[in-house]
Every structure is written in C-alpha cells, then in structure tokens.
Amino acid sequence: MALRQTFIASALGLSFGMFGQNVPVDFEPNGIGANWNWVVFENDYNPPLQFVQNPDTTGINPSSTVAQFEARQSGQAFAGCESMHGTDIGSWTITNANKILRIMVYKPTISDVGIKLVRFDNWSLGEIKISNTVINEWEQIEFDFSAHIGNTYDQIVIFPDFTGRPEDRILYFDNIYGAEFVAPPPPPPAPDSASMSLPNFFSPNYDGINDLYRPATSNADWIEWQVYTRWGQLVFSTMNLSDSWNGLHNGATVSPGVYFIEARCGSNEAGNTVIKKGIIHVLHE
Ligand SMILES: [Ca+2]
Ligand SMILES: [Ca+2]
C-alpha cells in the first residue's frame, strides 16, 4: 500500500506542500478530491459534483465515498466537471513515469469518458476519450498521455458521459491515479482446527485386519495419548503423530477387554486443542 501510494503521488504530481496528501484522488472525507473546487459545466443547470456513498463496494472499488456526476439529458455531450486551476492538482508535469492516468468509473451506460489536462493559461491538447466496457459495476480505465510528456498542467477536467443522452444519468467516478489497481489479496482462509475421534475397538491378533489402534485426527500438528487398563495401569503412551498401538505391553499382547484412552491433539496454526477420553475394546478374535 505504501508503495502504491508513493507511486500514485508521484504519478499525479500532487502538490504535497499544499495538500500534505499522497493518496489517490479518492474523494474520501479524509482523502483527496472531495474538498477541491470542482465546477460543473455545460450540464443544464449544472448540478454540483457530489460525494456520496459508493453504490457498489463489492467490486474493485470497496471504498466508502465516490464522486457522483448527474449528466443531464439537456446537458451537452461534453458536460463535465473541472478542478480549479492550481490549487487542486497543483502543478503537474507529464513524464514517462506518470503518463498513464487511471480512473475508476461506475456508469449505467457504455459511453466515452473524457479526461483533459489544462495548462495555467487554459491551453490544452484536448481531451482523451476512452469508453467504459461494463455497466453498473466499477471498472478502471486508462488514459495514455504519452503525447503530453513535458507539458505542465494545473487543472484536470473530467467528462463522465461524453455523448448525447436520451435521459438524465447518474454516473460515479473515483480513484484517479497513475497506478494500476491491484485487488487486495483475499484474506487467508481461517486455518482448519484440529479434530479427533477415538475408535472404540481393535483386534491386535496379527490377522491383518484392524490390528493397530490410533486416534483418527485431522489437521493435528501434535498429539499425545495414553492407554490404561481398567485398573489404571499405563500400557501404551506416545507423543508421535504417526504412532499406532499394536496391543503390545511389555512384549506381550494385552488381554482382551476394556481399556481406557486419554488423548489430546491440536493445531498450531488454528491454536486449538482437542481433549478426548474413550474406551477401547481389545478383541482377540
Ligand atoms: Ca473513494
Ligand atoms: Ca485383527
């Protein structure tokens, strides 16, 4: 994040001295852009740019606040909004490093978005127009200002819906910056807790069927378990996940009957411990 913000700041050439901000133009209450002196033009009665709740936080733009532009049916195709010369974006010289400008848009229609950069004396090379490709979801589109390298600008003009329109339209934009959006990595899945079950019989008679006893675990990183006779005599003990009991105690197979097991296991990652006690029927048939 820090890297991205640094890149964004240098890409946009924001005037840090003036704003003390090195974040994208994100329109957040404590971010940048919402307190700029945006002026709407050629748009009927020019409803002001508003900063509103993000209509869709599930896509690539989970942020809280976005810019809302109401494009009026009776407005011009080139209805738009512009920052104030100088004080908003500061002085911004296009270089090879910041020539790509990106913006996120959310629109109810497919139409060109225009971005124009303007010099202090109102000179400009004109807008670049790029269309969105999806509707009613956030999309990042890129503007290549390679042809502007070396020019210094102090105003940005945005045309959110550069087209004639048969109705009034509400359009949103956000995150004007020079860094490609990189989706945050999904949160790592919660580690699986260890679990354990205790089989309740086995037959250590070396017939190849159910001759070994061990607790059944999943996601266990460690285990310890002991087997006792009904009189409390320890006949098997281990702290090794791969160990099984073959029914031997002191070199001889224990008598058939009921034994008791106490077992604990756990997952280091999930940090859980399972404690179980059970009965083992030792069969010889
Ligand atoms: Ca935002
Ligand atoms: Ca057996």
Care to describe what's here?
- By secondary structure, this protein is mainly beta.
- The chain folds into two domains: 176 residues, Jelly Rolls; 88 residues, Immunoglobulin-like (Sandwich), CATH 2.60.40.
- The chain is 5% helix and 37% strand.
- The chain is built from two helices and 21 strands.
- The chain has a five-stranded antiparallel beta sheet with strand order 1-4-11-7-8, with no helix packed on it.
- Strand 20 and strand 21 form a beta hairpin.
- It is rod-shaped, with a radius of gyration of 34 Å.
- The two termini are 66 Å apart.
- The site of one calcium ion has 6 residues, from loops.
Summary, kept brief:
This protein is mainly β and 285 residues long. It contains 2 helices and 21 strands. Helix content is 5%, strand content 37%.
The largest β sheet comes out as: 5 strands, antiparallel
The set of bound ligands, ions and cofactors reads: calcium ion
Taking all residues together, what is the mean pLDDT?
A: 89
The low-pLDDT segments are: 1-22
**CATH topology heading of the largest domain:** Jelly Rolls
Q: State the end-to-end distance.
A: 66 Å
List the helices and strands and how they pair.
Elements: H1 2-12, H2 16-19, E1 39-41, E2 50-53, E3 65-71, E4 80-82, E5 92-93, E6 100-106, E7 112-118, E8 128-131, E9 139-144, E10 152-153, E11 155-159, E12 169-177, E13 195-197, E14 201-202, E15 216-218, E16 222-229, E17 234-238, E18 248-249, E19 252-253, E20 257-267, E21 272-282
Parallel strand pairs: 14-21
Antiparallel strand pairs: 1-4, 2-3, 3-12, 4-11, 5-10, 6-9, 6-12, 7-8, 7-11, 13-15, 16-17, 16-20, 18-19, 20-21
